[in-house]
Each structure stands twice: as structure tokens, then as C-alpha cells.
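Researcher: I'd like a structural prediction for the single chain below. Treat it as a standalone chain; there are no partners to consider.
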Amino acid sequence: MDVLSLLCLLIGFSSNSCASDHVGGKCWEATVEEISGYAEVAQKIIDLAVYGDARNRSYEKLAKFTDTVGHRLSGSRNLEHAIEYMYNALTKDGLDNVHLEPVKIPHWVRGKESAVILRPRNHPLAILGLGSSVGTPREGIKAEVLVVKSFDELKQRASEAEGRIVVYNQPFVSYGETVKYRSSGAAEAAKVGAVASLIRSVTPFSINSPHTGWQDYEEGVPRIPTACITVEDAQLMARMAERGQKIVIHLTMGAQNLPDADSFNTVAEITGSKYPEQVVLISGHLDSWDVGQGAMDDGGGVAISWEALSLLKDLGLRPKRTVRAVLWSAEEPGGVGALQYYQRHKENISNINLVMESDLGTFRPRGIQFSGKAQAQKIMGEVMKLLKPINATKLEGSAEGTDIQMWMDGGVPGASLLNDNSKYFWFHHTHGDTITVQDPEEMSLCSAVWAVVSYVIADLEEMLPR
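Model: Treating it as a single chain, here is the predicted structure.
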């Protein structure tokens, strides 16, 4: 009798029932039996996180952190303070192997900025310069406006763009579809001779709130100042232009791009008991934009990753594999710290069992988004059943996370938090991203999801198939 058949018989299944469906070296029924055996420990994690002494703790950690440090722009002194704060807090929490890994990150400074419509009437504009934008001359830029609703319209009206400020009034379709105007709007406007660009904020909802974000210039294309404006002001200028009114804006931006700064990714672990070299990585990014508190983006992801380790420690749970929390530096400029982490550790990619990132809100959890081969998805589906007590059992495809994408591209299974984030882009990259947006109960539920999934996957006898 072979080993697989013996294993199946030991748990009460015949070799014939298992022979057609194996996961790794184990029959599927044995895998289901193994995962279902974690129901009691999953309930203990849930009870501690949601109803016990750790209730609301992730929220309290986040509130104290954001109230103490504030926003944390890449390259800023505030981000340095945040890293120091987290290193000390993780160490005090008694977690394993707390350390910092050096990285170089972009250092962009906003400076003073303002914009005002001079014609057809005086009207101040609420703006936020976009990350990596150059500044205007000291005296600012005063120019007539060209309003367009798409890149296609800009190309059609290219002859009108020379010497003007291009204002994009693109409709919001989805973040993934519409963000191209923020990231590429300046470059496209510069190609047709514009002197600056103003982009309607990428959001489905506005209360006259500008939403900032990173933008990218193109090699060989003039670098022109660029900022986001509110939905209301973009629509105002569109209506003025439709009436044939001449619009003139005075734009002043003191933005600067400084040399790259020294920074760190912050790391803490629960070291594995049997295969410590094998890792389940959980994460959020520590940097934020320089408005609001960065509580939602991505203080929440940081807090639940920290809290997941704390829950395991408090319960005395040490899985077979290491659960490692990484708090990334400089995600907002494009996953800069995470890419350097990948370059430093990619030689050990075969030991990375699962990569997880929470960067789309920590509102009421519904489950997990997962990327991996079909066999791994089946395993994750069984793990999600352990979260039935908090109704967070959904498993959807396509994990999301700038900081984990390179690992997933290399074949490592990936997961992100699936939560009720319908209002996420209302506050995203705005002054409104504060701790007020967060809910203590919802964060406790998210922490439970993060801890259960990471622990069980780290403790299974076999790694996830890839």
C-alpha cells in the first residue's frame, strides 16, 4: 500500500475515493479534514479579537499611532518618526525578530500651492499637487484654460492646447479605469504644448475635496506642473467652456523633487516551530500622503497586520511556518520599498508560501481575494469556511496589492482583504482620510480574518501548491 492510500485510510477514506484528487502529496479528503480541524483554534482567535480582551485593540493601536505621528509622506521626517514608532511598539509587544531593512525612497515636497480662476469671475480653487510634480516659476503661471473630458478629445483639440492649462473633466468610471488621467495627464498635456494640467479628482463622490496621488512623467516630454482639483470645480469650468466663456487661471506650486531619502521596511514575526525558513507574509504600507492622517490608506492595513501577530502571540500559537508582518515604506510612489525587499529576498522565493496585503480599506470584512492555481484556491476556500462565525467566508479571484504583485508575478499565491469598501474612494488621498473613517468593530473583524488565514496557512503540513 502506498503512503497516500495509507494516509487516506487512517482518516477513514478509501484509496479509490482519494486517487482522483490529490493536493500536493495528500488526497483532497485528507486536506479538507486537516483544515476543518482548525475550527476550534479559529474560534479562539475570533473570540479574542472580536469579543475578548483584544476587542477594538487594532483600532486603538491605529488611533494612537495616527494621532501621534500624523501623515507620513515618502521621504518625510514624519515617515521616519512612524518607522521609529512602529519599531519600538512591535518590540515592546514582544514579537519575534523585530528589525528594519534599509531602502532608498523618493522624496517629493509639496510646498505652498494655490490656484484661482481670474476670468470669467474670481473663484479660488481647492487643489492638491500631484506627487513628483515640478513646481511653477516663483510668480506662478497665468494662462487660459482648455477643458477636455478625455485623452481623445485632447488629441482632437491639440491645436488649441499650446500655452494653455489643460483641465481634465473626465467622468469617474472606476478607479482602475480613471486613474490614468492622474498618472498620465501631465505628460499627455505637455505633448500638445500645455504649460500645466489640472485633473478632476479620481473619486465617485465629492464634497469639494481634492484627491492627490502619484503621477508619472515621460522621458523626452517636457515636465509641466500638475495638480488635482475637485469634481465640483472641474464641472464648473466645463460648464463655463460649454457656454463659450474664456477661463483664465493663476496657478502657483512650490513643489520640489529632492534626492532619494534613506528609509526602512519594518519587519516583525511569529517564528515558525517546524519550518521557520518558510514564510506567510502579511503586510500593509506605512507611508501615506501628506494630507489627513493616512488612517485608512494604509494605517488600517498596518494595524491589522500588527494585530494578527499580537493575537497569535497572546494565544500562544506558533505555527509550523513563520508568519512575517512587513510594513512597507514608499508604496504611494509605486511600491518602491516593496520592490527593494523583493530584490533582496527573491532568491528565497521557493520558501514564500503566501503573500498578503491589505491596502483597500479595513471596513466590514467579507472574505479574501486570492490569486493562485486552482488547487491552492480549493485549499483557501476550505480555510475561509473557518470564518463562518463572523460571516467572512467569501473567496474571490485576483488579489490586489502593489507591494505583493512582484511575488505573485513570480508564482507565489497572493491574498488581499475583501471588505465592504464602497466608500473607500470617497476619502482616498484626501484631508478626510482620518481615524474618524475607521470603525473599531470592523477593524477587530478584519484582524480576526487576517490572523486566522495567516495562521492556518502557515500551520498546514504542506505549502500551498503553485
